[in-house]
Specification:
Blueprint (H helix, E strand, L loop, with lengths): L4 H22 L3 E3 L6 E6 L2 E4 L5 E3 L1 H12 L2 E2 H8 L3 H9 L3 E2 L8 E2 L6 E2 L6 H8 L29 E4 H5 L1
Antiparallel strand pairs: 1-2, 2-3, 3-4, 5-9, 6-9, 7-8
Helix pairs in contact: 2-3
The structure holds zinc ion (2 copies).
One zinc ion binds next to helix 5.
Length: 171
C-alpha cells in the first residue's frame, strides 16, 4: 500500500524531531529518562527533568561539579571514574573555562599557540590578545586562560592534573 501524503509528512516530522533530540542530547541539553524511557529536558541549574514521570537527574557538567564539591579538586581520571563522564568531556570543560586547575598544582594545560602553561581555556592571555586584535568583538575571551602564579615542585614524579570548579574559586 502506498503511504498517504499525511503519513509521509508525519514520518518526515518524526525524523526532524529525532534529529533535534539527538542534537539536544549531544550538547547535554536533554537525555533519555532511565526510569520511563521518555525524554528528559534541561530544567535549571544543571538538572534534567523528565516530562513524563518527573524524575530529575544532573547533567554531565552537574555531575562533575558535584564531584568536585564533594571531593575537592581532583584529577580528570578520578572525576571520570566517580561520575561516568568521559575524560575527554572533562578536558573540554577545562578548555571552555568551566573548570580550572588550582593555582599551585604541579602541572597545567598548555596554550594552544605558544605552549605557555595555563590553568584553563585555550590560549594564554598574550595569545588571546593577539587573536582578538583585528576581531571586532572579543570572541576569544571565553577561551583566554589564566597563567598560574605558583607551581609545585614535581621532583620528577608522574603527576596528574587536578581540576576544580571555576566559579567557586572566584568567589
Ligand atoms: Zn521519566
Ligand atoms: Zn600563548
Amino acid at each position: 500500500m502506498k503511504p498517504t501524503l499525511r503519513q509521509i509528512e508525519e514520518r518526515e516530522k518524526q525524523k526532524k524531531e529525532k534529529r533535534q533530540i539527538d542534537t539536544l542530547i549531544k550538547y547535554d541539553r536533554a537525555k533519555i529518562c532511565p526510569k520511563c524511557g521518555e525524554l528528559m529536558r534541561y530544567a535549571f541549574g544543571e538538572v534534567f527533568k523528565c516530562d513524563n514521570c518527573g524524575a530529575e537527574e544532573l547533567t554531565s557538567f552537574g555531575k562533575v561539579r558535584k564531584y568536585i564539591e564533594d571531593h575537592g579538586p581532583s584529577n580528570a581520571a578520578n572525576i571520570s571514574d566517580g561520575t561516568g563522564v568521559p575524560v575527554s568531556t572533562i578536558n573540554r570543560y577545562l578548555r571552555e573555562g568551566r573548570i580550572e586547575i588550582p593555582d599551585g598544582s604541579d602541572s597545567y594545560i598548555k596554550c594552544e599557540d605558544c605552549g605557555a602553561e595555563i590553568r584553563y581555556g585555550r590560549y594564554c592571555p598574550a595569545c588571546a590578545a593577539k587573536h582578538n586584535k583585528g576581531q571586532n568583538v572579543g570572541i576569544f575571551n571565553s577561551e583566554a586562560g589564566e597563567v598560574p602564579k605558583h607551581k609545585r615542585d614535581a621532583y620528577g614524579k608522574m603527576h596528574t592534573l587536578d581540576v576544580m570548579e571555576k566559579t567557586r574559586n572566584k568567589r
